[in-house]
Structures are given as C-alpha cells and as structure tokens.
Design brief:
Helix content is 43%, strand content 15%. The protein has 7 helices and 7 strands. The chain has a 7-stranded parallel sheet, with helices on both faces. Strand 5, helix 5 and strand 6 form a beta-alpha-beta unit. Helix 4 runs parallel beside helix 5.
C-alpha cells in the first residue's frame, strides 16, 4: 500500500493521532513507506484510526493515554523503539483549544490547556530528543496557531496564544538552535482554522471570514506542510504559516 518516498523506513510518532490532522498525517506517512506510532486519549477511537491508517497493522502502532502524563509520554517513545527500532520524527499535534473571554477562564480551563499543550509537548519531546541524540539525527514538528501572530476580534483565545502559540513558537526556535549541531531539526506549522469535525457546519460561514482568502483551511493542506518540512533538510527553526493570510495583518 506504500509508495516509497523520502519518509520510507522512518519511524514517526504523532500525538493526537486518532482524528483530524494527526490521523491524516499518519495516513500520508504510511503511504510514503514510513512506520507510525499514534497516541490519543480515547482507546477505541485510536484503535479505529490505526485500522484506517494501515489495515494490515504492519506499519502502525497505537499507544493510548494522556500525553500530558510523563508515564504515557515515555511509553509512546519506548514502544515506538521496541516496535520500529528508532524514532526519526515527532509530530506534536495533540492540543486543546478553549475560546473564552480572559476573565471567564476557570482554573480547570487553565489546568487542562496547560497540561495538554505544554506538559504534553515537554515530556514526549524530551524523550524523543534523548533518542534522536543517540542516532545523530531527527526532526520535530510542532503544530501551533496563527492567533499568536494576529489575534482576531471576536475570537478570545489567550490560553491558545499562551501555550500553542507563544510558548511553542519560542520553544521551536530555541530547540532548533540548541540541537542544530546534533543533526536534529525543529520546525512548526502554524495553522489558521482548519475544516475538521470539531467545527459544526453551521459555523463555517463565520469561520471562513476569519481568513483573508475567505475560507477555512483543509486538513490536507496542513499535512502537505508537515511533509514539506520533513523533506526540507536545510530548514530548521521555521514557523510555517498555513493560515489563509491571517498572520499577514489586520483585514
């Protein structure tokens, strides 16, 4: 079922892999001949995604659990090594988005967003980098948000900007410099609003208008950006905006 490409033989870990961008990215990597490890909190949904990604089960391994838990993060990397022998690429896709006026965020909102978007990134990335250093190569792609570059009136989302945007964008650049000499590249894809099942059809007209080009992004457009970064060996520390022009300025 695979078409041998630049990802052939690589072992790729994808968090938030049971649906949307994560699942479609896994499908494309397997098509190119890679092996993938997917993680998600919902065990049944993750198992169903694994069967869709590769019905043979040969090129996919699923690890259920909350990626914010250090034990789960460690298990994702350990099981990937046990199954495929190496960790070449980590796609930090897992995340939550809670849009509320700043003063209406609860302690539970704050704890949930910080846990998944920050701790979930930290623990699995630390484990992955440890293995990549042994190999002398690796690639990390962080999925962030363009809201940090261009906040939108009517979309109050400071926790997304603080975590997926502000901290993760800065961490992407810092890690890119820290590990450039070790053969490890670190990049990010910064999407606009992407058309996934989490956005009800009745909201599409409003969401389309949040982009200068007048439409939401498609999942495949984010997948293509990830695949570009995977193949771009001279690119590191890049925040690649795939957002219909959101980051360019007010419109």
């Amino acid at each position: 079922m695979s078409v041998q490409g630049k990802a052939a033989g690589k072992a790729v870990v994808i968090t938030g892999g049971s649906s949307g961008i994560g699942k479609e990215t896994a499908i494309e990597f397997v098509k190119q001949g890679a092996n993938v490890v997917i993680n998600g909190r919902r065990e049944q949904a993750l198992a169903e995604a694994a069967r869709e990604i590769d019905p043979t089960g040969e090129h996919v391994h699923s690890v259920a659990g909350d990626i914010a838990d250090p034990e789960t993060a460690g298990r994702v990397i350990a099981e990937g090594l046990a199954r495929f022998g190496r960790i070449d690429t980590l796609i930090n896709n897992a995340g939550v988005f809670v849009a509320k006026p700043f003063t209406e965020y609860s302690e539970a909102d704050f704890a949930s967003v910080m846990s998944i978007n920050v701790a979930g990134f930290f623990h699995v990335t630390q484990s992955a980098v440890t293995e990549m250093l042994k190999q002398g190569l690796g690639h990390i792609v962080n999925i962030t948000t363009s809201l940090v570059d261009q906040p939108i009136a009517g979309v109050p989302a400071v926790l997304a900007s603080l975590t997926k945007g502000g901290l993760l964008n800065s961490a992407t650049k810092e890690l890119a410099i820290e590990y450039a000499a070790n053969g490890i590249r670190v990049n990010a894809v910064s999407p606009g609003v992407i058309k996934t099942p989490m956005h009800p059809v009745e909201a599409h007209d409003f969401l389309n208008k949040l982009h200068p080009v007048g439409r939401m992004g498609e999942v495949q457009e984010i997948v293509e950006a990830i695949l570009y970064l995977e193949s771009a060996s001279f690119v590191t520390g890049e925040i690649l905006h795939v957002d219909g022009g959101q980051n360019a300025g007010h419109w």
